[in-house]
Amino acid sequence: MEVLNKVKRKWSKKRKWIVILISTVVVIGLAITSFFLIQDMKKGSTDEKTELANGFVVTEETVYAAGTTAIGVVSEEFEPDYITSDLYIEEVYISTGDVITEGTKLFKLSDDSIIDAREELETIAESADLAYRAGLIEYEQGKITAKYDYDITLLESEQAKEVYEDTIMQLNSRLEEKQEAVEESEEIIAEYTNAINNNTYASEYGVDEKQATYDENLAILQAKSEEWGIPYAAFISPSGGSSGYDPWELITLEQLYKELEENLKDLEEAEEEYEYMVENASLLLTIEELNLESLKSELYEMQEDYDIEVMEAETTYQKALAKSALVESDYETELSKIEEEYNDLLDEKEDADENLAEFEELIGDTYFYSSSAGIILRTAVSEDRYLQAESVVVEYSNSEIVTVSVDRSSGYCKN
């Protein structure tokens, strides 16, 4: 279709249509004539003439035929249909019967209408040029984008299996972590329950052990104090009257007392923790039981979603594989689309330029000229009217175009 349009535009530049008025065109080849002559001579015929079909007569020297001869008619047509501006006919220079030559001015269009038409075509050409320039940029960008999408698709297809396996691994990991959290909560609840039922906090925090250590060290301190006859006041406080006692014994008692103080501190801390746990064990158990219920609910939902997410990952993987199989054809299709859009803009630009050039060639100087010589048979334009696109403006005879019509039913005539 594009080629036909190009041909039509180039044909319209000649601005003429030649209509040959014929009823029947008969062409008899010289070879046929010669064939019958030779055959007749071989038979030794003495006839001076041989009558052939279709109204032709052949002798040894001449071919005769009956029929008519017609002179061709040229139909000048204003072909352009791309001008919407009104073309006003200002003057007509020919009438029926006039003899014209090639290049004769047939009529004149007004200057204003030519200016309007020219401005219209120039505007169209400028718009088409701007659209083409913008389209050229989009064309180059489109090729880059298509290549990028092509590369990304290839990369995704290459990584599809790795992504799929990584997704499955993450799903399993999350499921395992949640399962471990549930098991850990169950262990905490079991510990709280056992501690409450069996009062294991005393041994857990070492209250009895620390109490025994404290009692043992206190007994030693008391025994040595009595044995050496040194009262508590002498080694507990520097101002307690330590003079007159054995310095080594005094120092020993002071060290035993300091150790006893540490034992008492450890015992008190253990008792505080023990008492706290005993008082709050029920509350902590209730809190952990609620936490376990929440963890189990989350685990159940995760297990429910697991199959769906695995299926989605599998679907994504299969889509990536299918897309990679079509990546070449998709890339070529996108390039073809971009190329087609670019070519459309280029065609529009070229058409606009050609239309403007054709306009200047046809009527750019306001005059319409004949394309050949002849005698005016009919005029279809008149002054103070508008020129219509794709309309005949004048018809005239052209003696250079001859049509021969043969009467097949007639006989021959002799010269």
Structure description:
- With 415 residues, this protein is of the alpha+beta class.
- The chain has helices spanning 2-12, 30-42, 111-198, 201-204, 207-228, 232-236, 247-325, 327-363, and strands at residues 17-19, 49-51, 56-59, 63-65, 67-78, 88-92, 99-100, 105-109, 367-369, 374-379, 385-386, 391-406.
- The strands form 3 sheets. A 5-stranded antiparallel sheet has the order 1-5-12-10-7, with no helix packed on it. Strands 9-8-6-11 form a 4-stranded antiparallel sheet. A 3-stranded antiparallel sheet has the order 2-3-4, covered by helices on one side.
- Strand 2 (49-51) and strand 3 form a beta hairpin.
- Helix 3 packs antiparallel against helix 7, helix 3 (111-198) packs antiparallel against helix 8 (327-363) and helix 5 (207-228) packs antiparallel against helix 7 (247-325).
- The model is unreliable at 1-63 (pLDDT under 50).
CATH superfamily of the domain at 2-110 and 366-406: RNA polymerase II/Efflux pump adaptor protein, barrel-sandwich hybrid domain
CATH fold category name of the domain at 2-110 and 366-406: OB fold (Dihydrolipoamide Acetyltransferase, E2P)
CA-atom Rg in angstroms: 58 Å
Question: What is the CATH top level name of the domain at 2-110 and 366-406?
Answer: Mainly Beta
Order of helices and strands: HEHEEEEEEEHHHHHHEEEE
Mean pLDDT: 80
Shape: rod-shaped
How many strands, which pairing sense, and closed or not: the largest β-sheet? Answer: 5 strands, antiparallel
Count of DSSP E strands? 12
Low confidence ranges: 1-63
Strands across the major sheet, in which order? 1-5-12-10-7
Share in β-strands: 15-25%
User: What is the CATH architecture term of the domain at 2-110 and 366-406?
Assistant: Beta Barrel
Distance between the termini: 53 Å
Q: Based on helices, strands and strand pairing, what is the structural class?
A: alpha+beta
Percent helix = 55-70%
Count of helical stretches: 8
